[in-house]
Amino acid sequence: MIMDEFLIRALLAGVGVAIIAGPLGCFIVWRRMAYFGDTMAHSALLGVALAVLMDVSITGAVFVVAALGALALIALQRRAPLSSDALLGILSHSTLALGIVIVAMMTWLRIDLMAFLFGDILAVSWADIILIYGGGAVVLGILAMIWRPLLAGTVSGELAAAEGLHPERARIIFMLLMAAVIAIAMKVVGILLITSLLIIPAATARRFARGPEMMAVLAATAGVVSVMAGLSGSLAFDTPSGPSIVCAAALIFLMSLIPTGLKRGPAHEGNMR
User: Fold this and answer.
1) Taking burial as the number of CB atoms within 10 A of a residue's CB, which of 27, 78, 93, 121 is the most buried?
2) What is the pLDDT of residues 90-132, one digit of tens each?
3) Half-sphere exposure (Cβ direction) of 41: Cα atoms closer than 13 Å
4) Angle at 13 between CA 8 and CA 14, to 5 degrees
5) Which of 67, 220, 216 is nearest to 147 (CA)?
6) Which residues of 228-263 are buried (b: 16+ CB within 10 A; e: fewer)?
């Protein structure tokens, strides 16, 4: 059976996002940054609202707002007396609410919030695909450059600093890479679901990986399988594509919990549990 062009575009877009999200998701799992990922994703709606209001690129505005949110969190963590969880909660909900308020105030425009919140992968264009693969190549290239200091800082920040690896700098760059991924992937699975695509495949891969690099590859593979299964289910049952992809990822994760004879590898040892 010959696939329609819009299905080919959707598949290419989903696979591209999964390949990008897999390796970054590993660090989110290792560093226990899931709530931080949610906060950055929620701030994306504020970026969308500002982009529409100022008539600028939505992808660019989402990246700028998410990046500023990450930098603001770092600054607040150093000065504010509140815990990181409290600061994340404040940033997450305030940026999401502010984005919704701005959208509601623009009564002269009709904005499909559902497409931004839950994605619309079937509507991606070839330009979107070029952005996903071009931007993804840049993201993965930079991640490869900071892989060693970022991994060392994940295990022990003090030891990494003592070895001159600059783990704090690597952490800031990683946060900016997350902002870029959220901006790139927003159209595929949406603002509210992008963190799921970052976390669930990585959590699935963790059970089988015997090292950090293997876990990154397995996470990307699990994400690709989730995209293919989710799109198939969406077409078969006429369900929303973004949530269907996340449901497929969750099902694969549950299947990974079935006891096997595989032993846990080094990626699960020490502080990377």
Assistant:
1) 121
2) 888 899 899 989 988 887 777 777 888 888 898 899 999 999 9
3) 25
4) 100
5) 216
6) bbbbebbeeeeebbbbbbbbbbeebbeebeeeeeee
What one-character-per-residue DSSP string does 148-191 give? Answer: HHHHHHHH-HHHHHHTT--HHHHHHHHHHHHHHHHHHHHHHH-T
Domains of the chain: 5-272 (1.10.3470.10)
Give the whole-angstrom CA distance, residue 272 versus residue 255: 22
Look up residue 7 and give its two tokens. 């299905």
43, 91 contact by CB (below 8 A):
yes
- Calpha distance 86→81 (Å, rounded): 10
The CA dihedral of 74, 75, 80, 83, to the nearest 10 degrees, is 0
Calculate the CA dihedral of residues 219, 170, 30, 154 and round it to 10 degrees: 140
CB atoms within 10 A of CB 155: 15
Residue with structure tokens 């004879």?
Answer: 261
* Residue 266 pLDDT > 60: no
With a CB cutoff of 8 Å and minimum separation 6, the contacts of 110 are: none
pLDDT at 264 over 70: no
The size of the chain, in residues, is: 273
Query: Which residues, 6+ apart, have CB-to-CB distance to 205 below 8 Å?
Result: 22, 26, 215, 216, 217, 218, 219, 221, 222
pTM for the whole structure: 0.88
